[in-house]
Amino acid sequence: MNYEEENILVEEPKKKKEPKLAKRTKKLNRSTGGTVALFIFLALIAAAMGMPMVMTIMNALKPLDEIFLFPPRIIVRNPTFSNFSDLMILMQQSWVPFSRYVLNSFIFVGFGTLGHLLVASLAAYPLAKNKFPGAAILFSMVVLALMFTGDVTAIPNFLIITALGINNTYLAIILPAFSGALGLYLMRQFMEQVPDSLVESARLDGANEFYIWGKIIMPNVKPAWLTLIILQFQIMWGGTGGIFIRSEQLRPLPFALSMLGGGGVYRAGVAAAVGLIMMIVPVTFFILSQAQMIETMATSGMKD
To answer: Which CATH class is domain 88-298?
Structure first.
């Protein structure tokens, strides 16, 4: 038989159909009643958390006869702005211009917050990305420093500042703000999450440490330093200068407002207006920055 005449039928193997993956739909096991109950529970928590803010606003608008009512009323019945007008009159009677107090507060808050962020991030970078002898001991000291409050360290700080010769100056408030342990701890923990491969790649390309810190590390830990700015701003804004500032021309705004509202029962309305003014600035700052902070937190997940 010739090779050309030979017909060989070869059956091709049938391809098996790959099973299609069924789309998984996630179903909530919570009933409608459970959803309503959860909503009511969260609404009650939100109301409880917002009650101090509501009370501060209402008290600032109350006349004196409503401030001292018992039991106290939450909603003001006869709102008035006399508390704010009285506060303005007292401000005009001060021998130091009110604008000077405002300027001092912005100097303390601005330079103190910026310096704390720079020092904390620069110190946290080698602790997180450079393995050197004693790094664990240094970080343990930072964690231990979180246990001490400002009242405990007030006397040592005063002795150090007096020895440096910067007492009763702007540096007496700004310089101690640089060394906060909370910022260093927060920045170090976030920098630990940045992949080491990014740092090693930058070093192989010839980048120096400051370039790595500014162009690689800091953009990837944006939620950390945004949160740090908010926390440090609130801490610095409420400061009165304490035992470090003696000159009236260097006093910050919280000190001046507290003195104006501390005149006894007659100035209870002024004190309520002072509380509202002191609350407006940090709350406004938080509202303006929280959207960006939440957005960066939602997109900051990184993996090697």
So the answer is: mainly alpha
